[in-house]
Design a protein that fits this description.
It contains seven helices and no strands. It is globular and about 45 Å long. The termini are far apart.
Length: 110
């Protein structure tokens, strides 16, 4: 966990994005660190911003949790991950679109 933490804080290339994503997974599951959904979401977001589709998906899925993100933001992140080729993101985006109001969809599509 210490190495992932150090790598995740050193810049913005895809290798570091993957380290951030991996550390987020560790916090999400409690593997090697104390489980912390808020820290996991923060790390997923950092990696998602850098374009890592798996992190975009993981961050979007946080909308279901108390520490979550707004559903319309989740929709936007799922669309981005799907555009990056992640098929499960497209499947979830379609499911989520059925749960959102027209206003939320409009916000998510911006």
């Amino acid at each position: 966990a210490t190495l992932y933490r150090a790598a995740s804080l050193n810049g913005q290339n895809i290798g570091l994005a993957y380290a951030q994503f991996s550390l987020g997974q560790m916090y999400d599951t409690g593997r090697g660190v104390r489980k912390n959904a808020l820290e996991a979401a923060s790390l997923y977001r950092l990696a998602a911003i850098q374009g890592l589709a798996d992190a975009q998906y993981a961050y979007a899925m946080k909308y279901k949790e108390p520490v979550g993100i707004p559903a319309e933001s989740a929709y936007a992140w799922l669309a981005t991950a799907a555009a990056g080729g992640l098929k499960k993101a497209e499947t979830m985006r379609v499911k989520l679109s059925r749960q959102l109001s027209k206003e939320e969809l409009t916000l998510g599509e911006k």
